[in-house]
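Entry under discussion copied across for reference:
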Amino acid sequence: MSGAADGITSALKGLFMSTDTTLEDVTPAERRRRRVRDAIIDAAETIFAADGESGISMRRLAEAIDYSPAAIYKYFDSKEALFAEMRELFFERLIRRMDEAAEEGGPVHVLCERCGRAYIETALEEPKHYLMAFSNWDKENAPDENTYAFAAETNLKEMVVAGIERGVFREMDPAVASKCVWASVHGLAILLASMEEFPHGMPGSEHVTRDAVIDFQTNMIIRGLSAGTAPA
């Protein structure tokens, strides 16, 4: 079992794009441009966390960083372009959180459940960002292969493939399985992020905690994937 866990852990590593470039590698002009761009994004993140998408305008961003609206447009030609960057940054945080969960290792079912919980907890910590990350998600806005959003889906599929190859998961179509796993975890994350009272609200559910629902959901997913006897 530990070998399978190591394999799946490895499948979750090394899939993140190396997009970081040190400041020593760029010109002074580019460093200034990056600083302004980062300031715009930081201001947008602050406003977004408080007021959501509707709170962001180029004029408000300009006021926040003491720039003109025209200057903001030199870095982002529209709010949609800014939101696309914010989505990508959210997926970077999400994927690194999943990587940290995988780094801890352990039995396969524990590793997968931990990754599922890391995904949901990230959604709960940044509910507005999570909801925005999947808004306007259509063919035209689908992530390309050089994005963290694309890598997030790739990692999940690779984890399923690794489990199948090592006999931990039963034989199945990894593409179908990864879509279904994501749909299950995403559905719970959306409910928890958008419905403050969930899982309460119905008579007899007062004792149900969010942790209990997350644990049951992630365990149920692993049982559905498992070959032979599922973990208790």
